Amino acid sequence: MITLDFTNAMSNGQGERGLAPDDIDSLKDRLKDIHTDIIQRKMSEFYFLDLPHQNTEQISLMADNIRATSGYLLLLGIGGSALGPKAILQALKPFYNLKHSPKIFIYDNVDPSTLTPILTLIDLKRTTVNVITKSGSTVETMASFIILIHALKELHGEQFYKRIIATTDPEKGTLREMAAKFGFRTLPVHPDVVGRYSVLSPVGLLCSSVAGININGLLKGARDMLRRCSEENPWENPAYMTASLMYLLQQKKNKNISVIVPYADRLKAFSEWYCQLWAESLGKNGTGQTPYPSMGTTDQHSQLQLWIEGPRDKVVTFIKVDDYGYDVPILDSENEIKAMSYLKNHTLQQLIKAEQEATELALVKAGIPNIRINVPMIDAYYLGQLFLFFELVTAVTGMLYGINPFDQPAVEEGKNLTYGIMGRKGYENKGLEVMSYRERIQKSKYKI
Amino acid sequence: MITLDFTNAMSNGQGERGLAPDDIDSLKDRLKDIHTDIIQRKMSEFYFLDLPHQNTEQISLMADNIRATSGYLLLLGIGGSALGPKAILQALKPFYNLKHSPKIFIYDNVDPSTLTPILTLIDLKRTTVNVITKSGSTVETMASFIILIHALKELHGEQFYKRIIATTDPEKGTLREMAAKFGFRTLPVHPDVVGRYSVLSPVGLLCSSVAGININGLLKGARDMLRRCSEENPWENPAYMTASLMYLLQQKKNKNISVIVPYADRLKAFSEWYCQLWAESLGKNGTGQTPYPSMGTTDQHSQLQLWIEGPRDKVVTFIKVDDYGYDVPILDSENEIKAMSYLKNHTLQQLIKAEQEATELALVKAGIPNIRINVPMIDAYYLGQLFLFFELVTAVTGMLYGINPFDQPAVEEGKNLTYGIMGRKGYENKGLEVMSYRERIQKSKYKI
Questions:
Q1: Can you count the helices (H) and strands (E) in chain B?
Q2: Model confidence pTM above 0.95
Q3: What interface predicted TM-score (ipTM) does this complex get?
Q4: SS3 of A127, please?
Q5: Contact with chain A for residue B255, Cβ under 8 A
């Protein structure tokens, strides 16, 4: 089971800079209410907590079919619809495309200089397209999808629909309507699952299953983590404790930046997944920690200087891996490199763990609060634990702030202005607003 | 030429939240002194400004040789020694390993679960190893190198040295000594080039040349940018202006987080390169903006909510690309998707540019200061401009703060503690310190 060590966020680890047990206890009543809300699923969006119990048969069958019929899987999605799949594939199947088939490409932007090379790398005739948008109208995803529909039609004529799987709302939305009209295969995303909490839904599970990942292991890990986090008392509940620490460190100690630093290359995309989850869930009402993705040991050569000597506005979350699954001995170097002889009889695992411990202690000595999540190993089971853990931490932290951790109202304006530029009916005013802005910018003298 | 638009950082774009021309002018005297220091190369580390004038013949010859003799290039380095190469390869040769040979792998950590798969993916017999560490003793790089030496010896016996190129200090250090002893080929990194400012040295240029990138184009871009930034007056110098804006926005407006958001997938690694440069150069003396890597349009579905409704502590730097080099039409979708018909007769380029403009205006409306770097296209020439530009901005910003932008004193303690754990002679006290910390942590009750 994943464990949490928060010694270095408390005052005995950090002196006056840390929190006191009383600080944690002061949240007990609010956590009790939050716990009741969660248990009773008072907000429908808590449905993400039920995802670990889903039946995966349909997903597995569809994945089997893709593996049998396709050399390539092209996933179209953005935000949570892409970050979750990326996080799983990188953690559990690193270098997947260099070793395995069907090759999986995730196109999560509308950059033409990415799509064009992808279309030359894949054999579109042997490609299944998995388009993912719960609302069914995400502009970036649907723009790419329209392009792919045309390309598939050219190759397959009226049979094009057989190469498409739509992952979307079970009843509503443009993509759902299209699926009904053309006969695409579909996978449902429960209407109460918010994009950034959807990694353990068909959004993340279909491509994982195609890649041969044990998706039931992912879900079992998530279920076990959910059980582990079923106490209302934060001292017994690692997710509630972590949420409390983050909330208190921000509120009482002005730690406005939350650095996450896994000591594992394979968790790089996981960090990015977490950062989206954290930023979009908590950035509301003038508050919200800025999450900062980092990587150990690499970023000791990058960000560590800033953590230690920069502003005192950061809390660091280490993710430490107990067993990397591989190890490489650093053989006796006596003959080659005398100056490096202290490495002999050690292994890479020992070195990376030593660096994590050394960095942790260096932060303690500098008075930077930090916590550590210990992960026994990176496999489907523990990755499932990590996903559920951080989702729960994020939601509970949002509730401690008294904000809704499931909406994202501030992104609407940008969307509406985009509609205005693109000439969408009903957004003419937004179009005019952009025109006038453009004029102002063109006239501006603040250009070099 | 790359241009800068800073309208939205000034008070006419941002009301009271923006800067006034007088704010910029107040720095003129200091910039004059800084400019003199730079012109006179008062700090030897300004040597990075001379890199664009280097002769690349030796690098090109070595790259030709690698291409002729090797199926794989394995680069060992960490920090700037890896981020620079990654930034160039991703920007100019996206999906390189899926299309080209020799395949290039960059191993920049000591994670055994990355090295082991790499060693199964490459044919070590046909691999050239490029080990990069200026000091010649970076522990992570040298640990990997020792492992590779043993592996190469097993394959090639005493001829192993022919498969190694060491990029390091021209005279000093462990790696230089080894090169002399064993006869490795070498490329020099000038002693005054700091790792994070080394991308345009042989550190970044060798693998680029192997990948078929026009390295002289990179250098020409850097030279032209240097000429473009040769005025001491910030109103005539985009690098000095950007440095002034960042400094003033942090000092006067408490913008402690500097978001960089290229609208181009190919600049993702570039963002990470910039973040290392910024963080390690400026995080000193209790100050220094935290750089935050972002990606447009993708992170509109991730961080935008936080920028707009979160704390008012951010300045956003857009990188806008004028020509993506490719475009993809979004064909008439009338028959397929009525709700998306506003996309018809548009292209992906139009959409991604519309989203950049819409997001910029949304930030303006929310009162978030932002600047825009306009890049004509992403090729070697303009990438060279970008590198030199951001290096100069970083150095000058550091000098405005009155700190040394070229050192990183705070990372020493972590290194020393690592030596202590690994049993290096002379670091016994550090080892004892870790032992006592470990004991304290083991006894701690703050664990779940």
A1: 18, 12
A2: yes
A3: 0.96
A4: strand
A5: no
